Amino acid sequence: MLRHMPVTAMIGLVLTALFLICAVFAPWLAPYSMAEVVGNPWEPRSAASLLGTDNIGRDLLSRLIYGARTTITIAALATMLAFSLGSVLGILAAVLGGWADQLMSRGVDLLMSIPTLIFALLILSVMPSTIAVLVVVMGVLDSTRVYRLARAVAVDLNVQDFVEAARLRGEGRIWIIFREILPNALAPLIAELGLRFIFAVLFLSSLSFLGLGVQPPDADWGSLVRENRQGIVFGVPAALIPAGAIATLAISVNLVADWILKQKTDLKGGRGG
Amino acid sequence: MNSLIARLIAQRLALGISLLFAVSVLIFAGTQILPGDVAQSILGQGATPEALANIRRELGLDQPAWQRYLSWLGGILQGDLGTALSNNRDIAESLGRRVNNTLFLAFWTAVVAVPLAILLGLVAVRYQNRWPDRLISGSTLTAISLPEFFIGYLLIYFFAVQLNWFPSVASVHDRMSLGERLHAIALPAATLTLVILAHMMRMTRAAILNVMQSAYIETAELKGLRSLLIIWRHAFPNAVSPVVNVVMINLAFLVVGVVVVEVIFVYPGMGQYLIDHVAKRDIPVVQAVCLIFAAVYIGLNMIADLVSILSNPRLRHPK
Amino acid sequence: MSRELEFLSTQVIMGRMSRRDFLGRAAALGVAIPVATSMLSSAALASSPIKGGALRAGMQGGESTDSLDPALWTSQVQHSFGQSWGEALTNVSPEGDLVPRLAEEIHASDDAREWTFRLRRGVQFHNGKEMDADDVVATLERHSDEDSQSGALGIMRGIESVRKTGNYEIVITTTEANADLPFLLSDYHLMIQPNGGKDAPEAGIGTGPYKVVEFEPGVRQRAERFQNYWNPDEFGHADEIEILIINDTTSRMAALQSGQVDVVNRVEPSIVDRVANLSNVRVQSVAGRAHYVFVMHADTAPFSDNDLRLALKYAINREDMVDRILRGYGTVGNDFPINAAYPLFPEDIPQREFDLDRAAYHYRRSGHDGPIVLRTSEVAFPGAVDAAQLFQQSAAQAGITIDVRREPGDGYWSEVWNVQPFSASYWSGRPTQDQMYSTAYISTADWNDTRFKREDFDQLARDARGELDETRRQEMYRDMGLMVRDEGGLILPMFNDYIEATSDRVQGWNPHPMGEMMSGYALSRLWLSA
Q: What ipTM goes with this model?
């Protein structure tokens, strides 16, 4: 399978792996600690600090490396939670239909209709701002979006001939969900997964900005962009670097997602590209 | 068939309205437990205990919650949203302006973004895994992964500060003509377009690709139809359901979630209005805005569901 | 105005005569001092203002919750807009002197308890009514009503009665001697309104140089020149003024750069050098009385131990903080809330240095162990989260562990500040030292955010308030400053400058240490070059 891997997917995989390595081995890779002030604010690149310094003179590279850990961990966990919760419930709703479907769908509508910010404010001001709480809040809020998509796709699939056939064969609901519908719903879901991950990264940064996210001196990438945003219109690169990191992460994760998408269609015997 | 659709719509409308009632209870309860003292927040750091006590009395916090809920609901049903605690202004009037502005920006952004996203999606499918596909995917992905304020600042830097083509302050007002307004919102609309484009475009692409595996596309291809046409006529209609759902999520975002763009471009929409009043714990305003947001979500979700059902013949005619 | 006075004031501008000489001469000529000061200010600005044009300001500090009712003002935008359409009895000049506005002359009784204000005649409200003693009495009554939500209620509580003694004269009696009363009446909440604003508090009708034409809170506020204004030489040069509320710093700078506004407030220190390098833009900065602080509750463990408080005071690197957080646009603080911008500043109090050994010594003596939680937020002051982290770093060098906890900006002022025992905050300046201390440091103060409660301090503050001898008074303020500095719960690392910027079309900028935007006078005093 890897032999047929296209270059783009390879790039995506390598970059994603690189980010993961940064995240896991942060303390060994970073030249300085997260909080240590090593120079003047917004110093340009130098031998001492390879990417320059941030708005109060901390080493940007070190903060980026430590930031990878916080960012990727929280975003990945939240996305996984959102997906398992959202897709399983969404498909279940489609298969069950009737009142159960209505109940769940309207419940989700209800959750979605309260502005995310108010919701997050409400919950996080009652709960302590720990990583676990953050992950759960972000995951649950995001799962509503996944639920709607999963249900929409599954409702379509549920009336297809092969599902009917499976029903007539006498397969149980579990079988139908996991063996018939889920595999066929994967394409749009995976396409969504890559994006949801990125949304989680961005959402985390807005929470941090509100003071609800990661506690300083730790910082996620979005917060790094925010901390240095004043410099953007004056050509200070300190904000561009973490923004570039997010974009690179987004593209590599989605390249991998695309590749998985294609694998799946290939395996199904379709024509693929 | 028509009566079936009419019944369906009526059913969903009734459901939507009862849902709104449920939401109103939830919003009311939620705003009651929102931590932070109303009076203190209104007066900020400059609050004296006397002024605090006065405001608390004025808010009628001595009445039981259910009584306050009923009178609130009664007011809303009569179109009376009450007055803001913080500055005694009529909420319906100030909010009305803001709603208009928000819808104006959302509408024009959607007019550009939705067709563009679908078109780009179709092109990406047509040239799957070739350079147009890669270019479209790569650039939209980059756009979506950059924080909104970052995109906004970049556009301001180039188009307002350097080139001076568009204003960075998109603060529209009554004395402006439609043309002036459109000119003013060019940059925020462009920012929002970049933010929502990728999501819709990628979903279009993925959903169509999924459908393309089916046998009937092969048939169409055998019939000798041209590729983009096949995709548009035969594949797209069957991919509508997920696409519509994602489009609706993004339209809702355009109404509900654009506060960052409003702040950057100084656009007088609902987002900033809500944030200011949340900060001051101006509960009547928060409730009113939340209710409007909820109505938007419920309405859009309803439309998405209906379109999904109508677009799928099998769902339209359940066995 | 006599010609001789006019001549004298030009002399001051040209630097030939000191201010003190000028005032002395003026007194000798038999003119009440306040009148003289007013002329001085106008002379200082009188490098021939040009009338006309539309002056637009992009400002941070406005919200959609803002109101036109002066009693409810808390935001910076309302401060500036209010000073353009409303007028108080008195103003305070950049030098800290009293300037009469709607009052013409002020006399105190010998015990400084009874104050007579003679009002200016022929002043018109925007609705055509003439301002008289009834309006002034009604205004002061409205703000001292215990049921009002006025931000000036705290000030008004020192007033026992306000009486009309003539159509253009009122007498104010204070509960105890207060030499500062005329200064207090310069408070921007105390704008004189027709019938005190009792009928229509939000009408936006005052006697100021501009009348309100558009008020959209949190978005824009516009006013045009009032044709019947009584003092058009000093105030109201542009035909029209407009405030656009631009809360985002970067957008504000972009709006200035692209010429959509002429003045902006709050240029962040991190970018001020870059803004200064722009063509067509001038940076205006002035050392002020506002300060960024960390407050400890002196009555709550572990901060009830003065050794721990001292340890923390010695463990903060003030110079470094001024460099990194304010980029040099500020001065180091000395743990009491007064600096040289105040009249009667006690100059000989030694500066507290960053001293890790002493910090470690006091920390050991306090016997405290374990992390100390410091709460901060983006809203506490610009750079508060960063400043807390710098504090954490420097304290760590003395073996003190600080746990920085970032709190949501939303709700910070009600849930954290003045509630939690150790948090970041800011204070803007007050017109007088007494005002600063009575607002936050006497035992009964509404906002005693350091829980500093000492009977001897309160007594000293009371005595100083009634003391008319300035040397005596300055000594008392020295003692008070020392008490707060050495035993209080206040860690005051820095006084921040007010940094603003104008386009180069804007003329007449006259820095004012009392507040932003020339202490609110900018819009009515600036003019546009042709």
A: 0.78
